[in-house]
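Q: what sequence does this backbone want?
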């Protein structure tokens, strides 16, 4: 009978359970996505030469576990808050506390295990989809990666089931030790913020010092090595929580004392934020960290992606050089619509390669001179025969041959002197497209046709350098973009779960405002402001974390990690705004129906 009553309560609040269930599914799915990389040692070793990457992922696992603990703790408190009133009523009509304790423990475990299993399956699908999208769209070369990885699935399952067993025991104790009347009215007791100036000032000071130490350790990672990552992990997480806990409470109380709070529904909005203030500080701290992790990972991933063409373009002015290209190969080149296409005749001996000077005077050969190795800035220099003969960059002409003659010296002769060289004449065709990345498929086909291989060690030019650099950085680029997307999904899950889980409780407050004559426009404005605060505050903190955190990547990036930073920031801001619009749309439908 008691089980039937419990199921009736479940059906009555199916919408709340859907929010809870979907949030837990996304949480376990993202955890699996991270572990699919972190536990796959073959993937980590084969796709990056950075020895510390395994330890970095271990620290990442610790941070994600902390986030998961808080997330599950909040989800568990939400589940408990939904059932307190129901089980309080059961106690009043004579149900035994031990039986109720068993029910809530079983309910917690069933919800958790079911959400985790489905989450692992969803995580596998997301892993397959995201990896396929990244590899195909960015032209990455990934080895030893699989969407389904059994150790990652077992780690996720055991970790989550263990946490839900503990959560179920906590719920059992919480319900059986609480009087029935208190359970009935547990959701009606606000968490009123109180200003404690001395304590809050201390939290602000400690928080700023902790974050400062974290930023300093990231900037001095070359000296501190792994210890620097550990120090940053602890201090930044601690400092972020302390600052939110101190400043957010003070901000709400201070704003309510200003004339601003008396205009329109601003006072109501501030009261809404104040009502569950303590829960918000924990969730906002998590969201700020996830924001920083996601934006940072995407920024670094895009940084490596932008570095690849820079390094390729700084190597040579031409995509490829073909000796004695066939008619079909020349047609393939023409199909790419190259911006530069020239053919130079030559005669070769073991010690020298003889060219006609007149051909270089008519079509000067372009060389690349690097001006700043750290920023990979360079200039293209047009060289006629006499200038190229003296240039220290004339090796770039020799690189475009098939590699056999790369140590030979180029010599530029008049037509008469050239004709006297007793060697068979050959042709060197060089060309440059507007983008190696855009034409990589056509260039690969051409390389296989002419050199009978796509191995960049057999030929030279921008495409060969692109191939080599891409194989070096693809793993890091993939990790950054993959984890950035995963953390972005978890960020959305956390925020939406936090906001939507309180929607039913907020509904009657908006209904009261509607009854006293408040317009729909005013109600929508109040909702927009309330949710905007929850998005903007962690966003600001997350951006600051990213700007300082990029210091870590100076060790492994040739260019500055801040190069082209505006692009990932703009993309991320657009996605973040989209999440905000989706959240307020769903929230409005619930509270204003």
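A:
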């Amino acid at each position: 009978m008691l089980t039937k009553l419990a199921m009736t309560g479940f059906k009555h609040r199916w919408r709340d359970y859907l929010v809870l269930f979907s949030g837990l599914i996304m949480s376990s799915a993202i955890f699996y996505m991270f572990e699919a990389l972190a536990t796959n040692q073959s993937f980590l070793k084969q796709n990056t030469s950075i020895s510390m990457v395994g330890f970095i992922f271990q620290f990442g696992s610790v941070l994600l576990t902390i986030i998961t603990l808080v997330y599950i703790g909040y989800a568990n408190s939400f589940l408990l808050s939904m059932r307190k009133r129901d089980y309080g009523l059961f106690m009043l009509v004579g149900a035994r506390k031990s039986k109720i304790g068993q029910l809530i423990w079983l309910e917690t475990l069933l919800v958790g295990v079911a959400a985790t299993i489905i989450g692992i399956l969803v995580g596998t699908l997301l892993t397959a989809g995201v990896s396929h999208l990244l590899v195909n769209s960015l032209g990455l070369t990934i080895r030893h990666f699989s969407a389904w990885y059994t150790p990652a699935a077992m780690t996720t399952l055991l970790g989550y089931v263990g946490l839900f067993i503990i959560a179920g025991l906590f719920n059992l104790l919480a319900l059986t030790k609480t009087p029935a009347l208190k359970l009935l009215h547990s959701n009606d007791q606000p968490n009123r913020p109180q200003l404690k100036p001395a304590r809050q000032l201390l939290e602000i000071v400690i928080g700023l010092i902790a974050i400062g130490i974290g930023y300093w350790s990231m900037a001095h990672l070359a000296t501190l090595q792994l210890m620097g990552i550990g120090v940053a992990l602890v201090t930044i997480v601690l400092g972020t929580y302390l600052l939110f806990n101190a400043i957010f409470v003070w901000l709400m109380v201070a704003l309510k004392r200003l004339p601003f709070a008396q205009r329109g529904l601003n006072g109501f909005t501030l009261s809404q934020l104040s009502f569950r203030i303590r829960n918000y500080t924990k969730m906002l701290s998590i969201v700020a960290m996830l924001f920083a992790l996601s934006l940072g990972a995407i920024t670094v991933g895009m940084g490596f992606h932008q570095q690849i063409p820079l390094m390729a373009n700084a190597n040579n002015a031409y995509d490829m050089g073909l000796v004695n290209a066939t008619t079909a190969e020349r047609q393939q080149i023409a199909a790419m619509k190259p911006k530069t296409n020239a053919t130079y005749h030559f005669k070769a001996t073991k010690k020298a390669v003889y060219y006609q000077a007149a051909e270089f005077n008519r079509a000067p050969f372009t060389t690349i001179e690097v001006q700043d190795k750290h920023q990979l800035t360079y200039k293209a220099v047009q060289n006629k025969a006499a200038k190229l003969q003296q240039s220290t960059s004339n090796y770039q002409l020799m690189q475009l041959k098939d590699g056999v003659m790369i140590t030979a010296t180029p010599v530029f002769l008049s037509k008469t002197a050239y004709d006297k060289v007793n060697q068979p004449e050959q042709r060197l065709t060089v060309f440059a497209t507007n983008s190696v990345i855009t034409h990589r498929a056509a260039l690969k086909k051409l390389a296989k046709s002419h050199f009978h291989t796509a191995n960049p060690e057999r030929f030279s030019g921008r495409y060969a350098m692109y191939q080599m650099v891409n194989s070096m950085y693809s793993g890091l680029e993939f990790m950054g973009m993959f984890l950035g997307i995963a953390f972005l999904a978890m960020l959305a899950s956390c925020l939406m779960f936090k906001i939507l889980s309180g929607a039913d409780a907020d509904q009657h407050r908006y209904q009261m405002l509607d009854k006293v004559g408040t317009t729909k426009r005013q109600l929508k404005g109040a909702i927009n402001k309330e949710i905007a605060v929850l998005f903007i505050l962690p966003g600001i903190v997350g951006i600051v974390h990213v700007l300082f955190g990029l210091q870590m990547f100076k060790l492994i990036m040739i260019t500055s990690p801040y190069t082209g930073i505006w692009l990932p920031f703009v993309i991320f801001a657009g996605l973040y705004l989209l999440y905000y619009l989706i959240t307020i749309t769903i929230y409005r439908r619930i509270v204003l129906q």
